[in-house]
C-alpha cells in the first residue's frame, strides 16, 4: 500500500513574523525584512556588509527555555509548537502516538552565538546542549514527546529541504506516521556575518538594506544573511484522513544530488541542480510541463542565480512562473529550504503565487518569468529548489492533495 506524505501543519518564525500567517501575509504584501544589524555592532568587527534580516526579540512560546536551548533551537521549538497546533494535534491526546512520531530538523551553524559567548572561557555545564547543531531536533522531540526517528541534517543551505525529504522517506517506508520536519538557523553573529563577508558573498548595499536582496535582478551583488525557522508537520495521508484533517499539500517527490565540482561555486550551467530537479519530478512521476510554479533557491548572488536560471531552462521547455522569497526574507541557510517549503505548501492551499521582492531590472543571464506581484491562480503542482556549499542540492515536489 502506498504511504503518501501530506502537510497538515505549518509553523514559521521569520524576520517578517513570529507566525506562519503573519509571514505569509508580509511576503505577499511585498515586504522586505533587511535592515542594519542590531545583534552586534558591525563597526567593531570591520565587516563590509552591515545588514541582515533579524527576528525581533525571542519566541514567546511557553515551551521555549532560555537556559537549556540555544537561539536556533528556541526558534525551532516555537515553530514546531505552532505547526503541531495547526495540524490539530495535542501531544497529550490518544491521536498522538509518540513512538510513531519522528523529528527531522536541520541546522548547520547550530548554537553559533552560544559558541562565541563561550570562547576563551570555561564552558558552563549547559554549553553543549545549547550549542550542538542536532539539539534543535533533540529539544523538539523532548518538548513534544516524539519518540520515532530523530535526525538533524547539516548540509548547509540545502539542509532544510533534505530534512523534509528524509521525513517523507520516514513516512513512505513506515518508520513513522507523523514527522515534525524543517530547518532552523540563527547565524547573525560576528563570526557568521564575518565569515560570509570575508568571502565577499554578502550584499554591501548598507545604505538601502531593504533593497539589498535582489534575486535574479541584474543589480544583485550578494545575499543578505537571515535567521529563521520553518517547520512542517508531515503525516501519512490515511492517518490524516482518519483524523478528518484537510492537508495543505502532498509532497510527492524529492531529489538529492551533488555537484562534485567546487566547495562554494555551483556546477557549470547548474547541472547538479538540474539533475536534482529532474530526479524529484521522476520520483513524483510527473513531466516538467505539469509544474505550475517554481520557488527558486535564488539567493541574490551573481553566479548562483545565473546558474540556477540555466538549470531551470534546461529542465523546462517553458519555465513556469518563478519566485524567490529571499528578496523578502533574506537567506536563512539551513532554515531557508524549510521556510520556502512552508511558503509553497501555503501557496498551493491559498491558490496564490507570492512575489519576488526587488526584482526590477531583468538580467539576460536569468531569462525567467519572475513573479513581481502576488498572483491568484490555481496551483496543482509546485517545486522548490535548494543548494548549499559543498555542492549539495535538494528539490521537493508539492501537489494539491
Q: Explain this structure to me?
A:
It is a single chain. This protein is of the alpha/beta class. The protein has 2 domains: 238 residues, Thiolase/Chalcone synthase (Peroxisomal Thiolase, Chain A, domain 1, 3-Layer(aba) Sandwich), CATH 3.40.47; 147 residues, Thiolase/Chalcone synthase (Peroxisomal Thiolase, Chain A, domain 1, 3-Layer(aba) Sandwich). Helix content is 31%, strand content 18%. It contains 13 helices and 14 strands. It has a 10-stranded mixed beta sheet, sandwiched between helices. Strands 2-3 form a two-stranded antiparallel sheet. The chain is globular and about 55 Å long. The two termini are 17 Å apart. The mean pLDDT is 96.
Short description:
With 401 residues, the protein is an alpha/beta fold.
The CATH architecture classification of the largest domain is 3-Layer(aba) Sandwich
**Any idea what the radius of gyration is?**
19 Å
Number of domains: 2
Global outline: globular
Order of helices and strands: EHEHEHEHHHEHEHEHEHEHEHHEEEE
* Residue share in helix: 25-40%
Number of strands: 14
Low-confidence stretches: none
Number of helices: 13
Distance between the termini: 17 Å
Question: Secondary-structure map with pairings?
Answer:
Blueprint (H helix, E strand, L loop, with lengths): L4 E9 L6 H10 L5 E2 L5 H4 L5 E2 L18 H16 L14 E6 L5 H7 L8 H5 L3 H9 L6 E2 L7 H14 L5 E8 L4 H9 L29 E9 H6 L6 E10 L12 H13 L9 E3 L6 H14 L6 E2 L2 H4 L6 H15 L1 E2 L21 E2 L4 E8 L3 E8 L2
Parallel strand pairs: 4-5, 4-6, 9-10, 9-13
Antiparallel strand pairs: 1-7, 1-8, 2-3, 6-7, 8-14, 11-12, 13-14
Helix pairs in contact: 3-6, 7-13, 10-11
Amino acid at each position: 500500500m502506498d504511504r503518501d506524505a501530506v502537510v497538515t501543519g505549518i509553523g514559521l518564525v521569520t524576520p517578517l513574523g513570529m507566525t506562519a500567517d503573519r509571514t505569509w501575509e508580509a511576503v505577499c504584501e511585498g515586504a522586505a525584512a533587511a535592515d542594519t544589524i542590531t545583534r552586534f555592532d558591525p563597526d567593531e568587527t570591520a565587516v563590509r556588509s552591515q545588514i541582515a534580516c533579524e527576528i525581533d526579540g525571542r519566541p514567546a512560546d511557553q515551551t521555549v527555555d532560555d537556559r537549556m536551548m540555544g537561539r536556533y533551537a528556541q526558534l525551532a521549538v516555537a515553530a514546531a509548537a505552532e505547526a503541531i497546533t495547526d495540524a490539530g494535534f495535542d501531544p497529550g491526546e490518544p491521536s498522538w502516538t509518540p513512538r510513531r512520531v519522528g523529528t527531522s530538523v536541520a541546522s548547520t551553524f547550530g548554537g553559533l552565538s552560544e559558541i562565541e559567548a563561550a570562547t576563551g572561557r570555561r564552558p558552563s555545564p549547559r554549553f553543549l546542549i545549547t550549542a550542538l547543531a542536532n539539539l534543535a531536533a533533540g529539544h523538539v522531540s523532548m518538548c513534544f514527546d516524539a519518540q520515532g526517528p530523530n535526525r538533524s541534517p547539516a548540509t548547509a543551505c540545502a539542509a532544510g529541504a533534505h530534512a523534509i525529504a528524509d521525513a517523507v522517506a520516514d513516512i513512505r517506508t513506515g518508520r513513522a506516521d507523523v514527522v515534525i520536519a524543517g530547518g532552523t538557523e540563527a547565524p547573525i553573529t560576528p563570526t557568521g556575518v564575518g565569515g560570509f563577508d570575508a568571502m565577499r558573498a554578502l550584499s554591501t548595499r548598507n545604505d538601502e538594506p531593504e533593497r539589498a536582496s535582489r534575486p535574479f535582478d541584474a543589480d544583485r551583488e550578494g545575499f543578505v544573511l537571515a535567521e529563521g525557522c520553518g517547520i512542517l508537520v508531515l503525516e501519512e495521508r490515511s492517518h490524516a484522513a482518519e483524523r478528518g484533517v484537510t492537508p495543505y499539500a502532498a509532497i510527492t517527490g524529492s531529489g538529492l544530488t551533488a555537484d562534485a565540482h567546487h566547495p562554494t561555486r555551483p556546477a557549470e550551467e547548474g547541472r547538479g541542480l538540474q539533475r536534482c530537479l529532474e530526479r524529484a519530478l521522476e520520483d513524483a512521476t510527473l513531466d516538467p510541463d505539469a509544474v505550475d510554479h517554481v520557488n527558486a533557491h535564488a539567493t541574490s548572488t551573481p553566479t548562483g542565480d545565473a546558474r540556477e536560471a540555466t538549470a531551470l531552462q534546461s529542465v523546462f521547455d517553458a519555465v513556469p512562473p518563478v519566485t524567490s522569497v529571499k528578496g523578502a526574507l533574506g537567506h536563512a541557510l539551513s532554515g531557508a529550504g524549510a521556510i520556502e517549503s512552508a511558503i509553497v505548501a501555503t501557496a498551493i492551499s491559498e491558490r496564490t503565487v507570492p512575489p519576488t521582492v526587488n526584482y526590477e531590472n531583468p538580467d539576460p543571464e536569468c531569462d525567467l518569468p519572475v513573479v513581481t506581484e502576488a498572483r491568484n491562480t490555481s496551483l496543482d503542482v509546485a517545486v522548490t529548489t535548494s543548494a548549499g556549499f559543498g555542492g549539495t542540492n535538494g528539490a521537493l515536489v508539492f501537489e494539491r492533495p
